[in-house]
């Protein structure tokens, strides 16, 4: 049975509020949740969001959203969100990778993540930038709402929050790796497995005297181009970067997981422990570590979750997206980006399938995106292993092996255009059970870790920030 196809509003279009007749409950108000709420609102769906915390916070250090995630954001508020994000983000040009002793091995462009194509900045700043537009749309938000219970029928789905029952056409779980929705969708508890690594993380604004100290005078002056440097050694790698035009500093140190710490972004760490890991390394590293305020240093256990067998519940009205569906290790640099891709896609799937076919919309979204996300997850693990289990003989012959992947199939992807183009094919695959071959993954036999992305097309579009005629 072939599905009847509607044209929808198109990749740049915005529907009248509430015009689709579809109501969705979004769980979580992080990057995935905010983006889902905004994109669903844009496609005419009624949206209610639940967030377990008491406020939308600015926690976190540096985070990147590559071009494939910024394309939808670029259109928000007629380009104003893009302009504000560009102002608070870093302007990296190159990523420099060194040995632990400081020998420069590779300097490669930050295409796809740098100013003009992507966003790299402080997580909290970017999240609040997006949330400001969310508030402007007056989307319904409930704080202190920790969702643990779900229900579902053939015609509706919902949650119970603080003893109150909420019902809608679909529930979209965007509340991270600890989402209760994972247990509901899978029908069982899925336990994470240790990756064997943890990561020290820090973000701070240094004292003005920083550049008077000969040991740290190499750090660029405020106002110039930001710097990002990676140092790799046996089973360890550290990244040090300036942020917001050299006005702040962030660093991370991936190291073997030797302590019984919890899986939390806010577990305090001891500076002396981090210094021991890089003892004997390039002295620039320790000098940056030493000026880190004690309350700005955390140790985060990296837990890996295998790709899930499904993101959609048995009745097809509850779906997992973002980290709730496909968590990424930090070296993937795609976690937030793929959450935005999910958001743009699910809103369009609901628009095109319509209120009478919500389960088809959710299953089509999964069909369209599952393999793409799975490949991205595995690619992040590959990068981590390349940096901590380095084959030095191979690297000496070809330093490009150390490069963060910048593949065209990943970064030069327009999730909205793709959703409209592929809906009929993917939906019919769901209906008939026939095989679906996605076009948003690398071609068979190609190098999935290529660095063949060129950002001229979208980079110019971002830099100019023209009036694109999108109105709310």
From TrEMBL:
UniProt keywords, alphabetically: FAD, Flavoprotein, Monooxygenase, Oxidoreductase
GO molecular function: FAD binding; monooxygenase activity
SUPFAM superfamilies: FAD-linked reductases, C-terminal domain (SSF54373), FAD/NAD(P)-binding domain (SSF51905)
Keyword Flavoprotein attributed: yes
Keyword Flavoprotein: yes
Record-linked Gene3D superfamilies: FAD/NAD(P)-binding domain (3.50.50.60)
Location of the FAD-binding domain: 314-351
A Pfam family per the record: NAD_binding_8
Transmembrane segments: none
Family membership: Belongs to the paxM FAD-dependent monooxygenase family.
Official protein name in the record: FAD-binding domain-containing protein
Lineage: Eukaryota, Fungi, Dikarya, Ascomycota, Pezizomycotina
């Amino acid at each position: 049975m072939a599905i009847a196809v509607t044209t929808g509003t198109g990749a740049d279009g915005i529907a009248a509020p509430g015009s689709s007749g579809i109501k969705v409950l979004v769980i979580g108000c992080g990057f995935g949740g905010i983006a889902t709420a905004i994109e669903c609102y844009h496609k005419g769906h009624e949206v209610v969001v639940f967030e377990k915390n008491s406020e939308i916070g600015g926690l976190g250090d540096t985070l990147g959203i590559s071009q494939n995630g910024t394309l939808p954001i670029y259109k928000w508020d007629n380009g104003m969100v893009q302009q504000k994000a560009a102002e608070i983000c870093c302007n990296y040009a190159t990523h420099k990778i060194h040995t632990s002793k400081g020998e420069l091995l590779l300097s490669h462009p930050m295409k796809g993540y740098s100013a003009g194509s992507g966003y790299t900045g402080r997580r909290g700043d970017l999240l609040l930038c997006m949330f400001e537009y969310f508030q402007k749309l007056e989307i319904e938000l409930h704080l202190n709402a920790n969702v643990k219970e779900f229900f579902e029928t053939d015609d509706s789905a919902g949650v119970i929050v603080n003893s109150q029952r909420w019902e809608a056409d679909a529930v979209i779980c965007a509340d991270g790796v600890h989402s209760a929705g994972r247990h509901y969708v899978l029908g069982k508890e899925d336990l994470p497995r240790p990756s064997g690594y943890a990561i020290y993380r820090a973000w701070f604004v240094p004292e003005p005297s920083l550049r008077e100290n000969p040991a740290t005078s190499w750090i660029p002056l405020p106002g110039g181009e930001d710097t990002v440097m990676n140092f790799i050694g046996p089973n360890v790698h550290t990244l040090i970067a300036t942020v917001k035009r050299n006005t702040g500093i962030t660093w991370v140190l991936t190291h073997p997981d030797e302590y019984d710490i919890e899986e939390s972004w806010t577990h305090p760490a001891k500076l002396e422990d981090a210094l021991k890991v890089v003892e004997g390394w390039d002295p620039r590293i320790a000098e940056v570590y030493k000026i880190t305020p004690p309350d700005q240093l955390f140790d985060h256990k990296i837990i890996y979750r295998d790709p899930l067998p499904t993101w959609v519940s048995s009745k097809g009205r509850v779906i997992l997206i973002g980290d709730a569906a496909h968590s990424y290790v930090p070296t993937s640099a795609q976690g937030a980006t793929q959450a935005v891709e999910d958001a743009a896609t699910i809103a369009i799937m609901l628009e095109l399938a319509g209120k009478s076919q919500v389960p088809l919309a959710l299953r089509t979204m999964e069909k369209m995106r599952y393999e793409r996300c799975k490949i991205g997850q595995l690619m992040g693990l590959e990068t981590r292993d390349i940096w901590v289990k380095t084959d030095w003989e191979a690297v000496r012959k070809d330093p490009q092996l150390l490069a963060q992947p910048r593949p065209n199939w990943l970064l030069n992807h327009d999730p909205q255009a793709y959703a409209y183009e592929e809906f009929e094919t993917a939906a019919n695959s769901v209906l008939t059970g026939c095989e679906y071959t996605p076009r948003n993954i690398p071609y068979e036999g190609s190098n999935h870790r290529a660095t063949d992305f060129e950002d001229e097309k979208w980079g110019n579009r971002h830099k100019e920030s023209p009036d694109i005629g999108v109105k709310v």
